Amino acid sequence: MKSMKLAGIITLIITAMIVSSPASAVLLEETYMGWVSKIEPSKNIVHIYVTEVYQGDGTWLTYGKSKLPNQIVPGTTSNPSVFTELKQGDSVEVTIMGGSGGEWITIGKIGSVGSTSKPIIACYGDPSRLISPFYQNYKISFTPEPDCALCEGTLCTASIASVTVERDSATVETADMFPGSTHVFGWDSSYQYIPQITFVSGEADSTTCSSSSEIGMMAGPQAVSDFTIYITQRSTIVKSEVETLETEFMTEVPTEVVTAAETQVPVTAATTVLPATTPATSGFTMFCALAAVFAALCLFIRRMD
User: Fold this and answer.
1) Which entry of 161, 195, 240, 265 is 20 to 30 Å from 25 by CA?
2) 187 phi/psi in degrees, rounded to 5
3) Residue 56 and residue 183 share a domain
């Protein structure tokens, strides 16, 4: 009788765990400062020599005092501008998802290394994953909107992103951006340096597209979006270019976009092959694991009788 009661209690506990399990299994994110060690365009791989590791509480720890096992960390990126505009030795702030060999979800190019502050002058990836401020104290935030017809698990492709640019706590401009579009923020302001932003692609949480019961049985990584951002001098952009950038994404034939990149450095590809990153675990797998635990407990209870 006691065994039956115990089995009932265990069943209730496991059922509660399944129902209340979170919709997403957040993958590890780590943020570093350092410089570009090697770039492999043919493999979409960038190697970063790490000098500092972010601690998550507003402080940075030098590599020697951190628990990071390797000082050179490789990772992949799908942002094509990385391989034409970054070069070996560039100072960067980066965030990787999934640890060494994972994905660089943001790469921020640092402007002045000699000063006490290290502002970001260009960003390739998700600006929300950067710790340091942009040059001229710009803050860039965005809200992606999911395309509910293009969802997989907990993530959907973003059909549009509402992007807001602030400076010194004042809103400079807010604009809706479609994937592939470029917008110059603050063109009508008096600022000498203004952000030029391209929305490459994005992801959004599928919560608004699915019922709570469906979400409860799914697990997957967090949403990440990809932008290319330059804080550039107004004098380098002419009005005709701004008008072109605002309309070119609507055409089916790609047109050349004049960017604010300073240099384009060819890089020789290396031969290193990275292990594939582990895919996100599905909710079904979680259910099977809990069922296996339940079966083992039942067998243990039967042996006690």
Assistant:
1) 161
2) -60, -35
3) yes
Domain that residue 138 falls in: 27-280
* CB contact at 8 A, 8 and 15: no
Q: How far apart are CA 132 and CA 123, in angstroms?
A: 11
For 231, phi then psi, to 5°, come to -100, 105
Give the pLDDT confidence of 113-129 residue by residue, as tens digits.
566 678 999 999 999 99
135 C-beta neighbours (distance < 10 Å), count: 19
Give phi and psi for 22, each to the nearest 5: -70, 155
Q: How far apart are CA 82 and CA 191, in angstroms?
A: 27
- pLDDT, tens only, 16-49: 444 444 444 578 999 999 999 999 999 999 999 9
Report d(CA 155, CA 135) in Å as an integer. Answer: 32
> Under a CB-based contact definition with an 8 Å cutoff, are residues 115 and 50 in contact?
no
pTM: 0.73
Q: How far apart are the first and last CA of the chain?
A: 9
Domain total of the chain: 2
Read off the tokens for 48. Answer: 């970063």
List the structure tokens of 165. 């640019």
